[in-house]
Design goal:
By secondary structure, this protein is of the alpha/beta class. It contains 13 helices and 19 strands. The longest helix has 22 residues.
């Protein structure tokens, strides 16, 4: 970690007066949200307080996502709208961080076309924030640091958005290079944190009362593969499971090619590891999976599912599906429908394929009309709604352990939370229960959630 003490002292001197206010807005995945919490942690150390009101902010940092070009377009639109804010408040400092800025052409575009932006900061350059901020306070019009990697994010304190749910990155980067995905190009190659550091962080969070620990990585299943002498992901789960306290362990994302029987056994045998696995299928067609460079077949994926269900027939599975990958045929799409009907997922997260510049898939010719892709998406969602409505009925009459998240936005006097199986549960209760574990007896099943009563 860089020693920023001298820079921070100088920044405090230049800021003077009452504490300045910062607005940090994160887009995209949980890893990005975690990065945003680290940015807040460093800003708090400098002396900033926080606001969600743009008009009050002295510093605005947009922590961006680059998974889809539509996400980038959205951020460029927001940056453009901030020109007026800068005109009304010339002292306002605007910074752009995250995956978008890790692409050189985006950093250059911001520099040339958006003079209201003071600095850009890459995904692995959070430690440069004090230096970039100091440049802005000194009057430098534009600064940039898109360094590839440092160890900063492993040790900086975070300003967490929740008082009972915490995300803990266990690794960074990705080695998979799926043909549709930009992540390896903006996050770099896989780098695992030391297990001792992870265990120490989780122990501290549990001591502070956190009830849900979400382990993060682009492919958590390959944790430790890059570190000689380090433990594997199943071994890490077992060690974390041994920490004393009342909490649940979740993780994402999980790649099917590395979802070993050792991992499944660890999940099922560890009482604090949630009984839910998000296992992205992407397509039920082995030929499409090959074009995606997913490095497993539909048959191999189903072997993993069958092993899980042989141990626990009701085990909760969710997945990701990409509809309309270049030149997907009707038969290939039917393979996907066949698998979701066989596996019976509790939920799916589905997307129509969108071209992502900089990936191999972007160069593939695609003869499939957009209206066909839209029809397939509607067919997929209808099939899953039917599956969920029927599959959720298995919970009726059961008692589920639920971590209460919030008051229901749909029904007054009701609370909502997620069960150990990652099922949304609604029930009548007092808001004093938010952040606590409760038992709920399920009385009703819908196609998106279940409802019950407190036990």
């Amino acid at each position: 970690m860089n020693d920023n003490s001298a820079l921070i002292c100088e920044i405090r001197t230049l800021l003077g007066g009452s504490p300045p206010k910062a607005l940090v807005r994160s887009f995209g995945c949980q890893l990005n949200v975690s990065d945003g919490e680290k940015i807040k942690g460093l800003l708090e150390k400098i002396g900033y307080t926080f606001t969600e009101n743009e008009d009050e902010a002295d510093l605005i940092i947009l922590n961006t996502c680059a998974v889809r070009e539509s996400a980038e377009d959205r951020v460029f639109g927001i940056i453009g709208s901030m020109k007026k804010l800068k005109e009304l408040k010339p002292s306002l400092i605007i910074g752009i961080s995250g995956c978008m800025t890790a692409q050189a052409h985006n950093a250059e575009k911001i520099k040339k076309s958006y003079p209201q932006v003071s600095f850009v900061m890459g995904t692995s350059a959070i430690s440069s924030l004090p230096a970039l901020l100091l440049d802005s306070l000194r009057g430098v019009k534009f600064s940039a640091d898109t360094s590839e990697y440092d160890d900063f994010s492993q040790s900086v304190p975070q300003v967490r958005d929740s008082s009972f749910k915490a995300s803990v990155p266990i690794m960074f980067g990705c080695n998979n290079f799926c043909t549709y995905c930009i992540v390896p190009y903006v996050r770099g190659r896989e780098r695992s944190r030391r297990s001792d550091d992870i265990i120490r962080e989780v122990c501290g969070l549990v001591h502070d009362g956190y009830k849900e620990i979400m382990l993060l990585g682009q492919n958590v299943n390959s944790y430790g593969n890059d570190s000689d002498g380090e433990i594997s992901f199943p071994q890490l789960l077992r060690k974390l499971n041994g920490i004393e306290g009342d909490f649940v362990i979740r993780f994402m994302s999980s790649h099917p090619k590395d979802a070993s029987r050792e991992l499944i056994d660890a999940i099922l045998e560890c009482d604090k590891v949630a009984k839910h696995l998000h296992l992205p299928l992407q397509s039920g067609s082995s030929s499409v999976l090959d074009r995606m460079n997913r490095r497993y077949t539909a048959e191999k994926y189903l072997e993993t599912v069958d092993y899980i269900r042989s141990k626990d027939p009701d085990y909760s599975l969710t997945t990701d599906i990409i509809v309309g990958f270049p030149n997907e045929t009707d038969e290939e799409f039917k393979d996907t429908l066949d698998i979701i009907r066989r596996v019976r997922y509790d939920n799916i997260y589905s997307f129509i394929y969108s071209k992502r510049s900089g990936t191999k898939a972007a160069a593939m010719a695609d003869a499939t009309p957009e209206d066909v892709k839209g029809r397939r998406m509607r067919e997929l969602l209808e099939a899953q709604r039917e599956i969920s409505a029927e599959h959720y009925k298995r919970f009726i009459g059961r008692k589920l352990r639920v971590l209460v998240d919030d008051a229901s936005k749909k029904h007054t006097g009701f609370l909502t939370g997620k069960s150990n199986e990652f099922i949304i549960v609604e029930f009548e209760g007092d808001t004093s229960l938010i952040g606590k574990f409760v038992e709920v007896e399920i009385t009703e099943a819908m196609n998106w959630a279940v409802r019950g009563k407190l036990v």
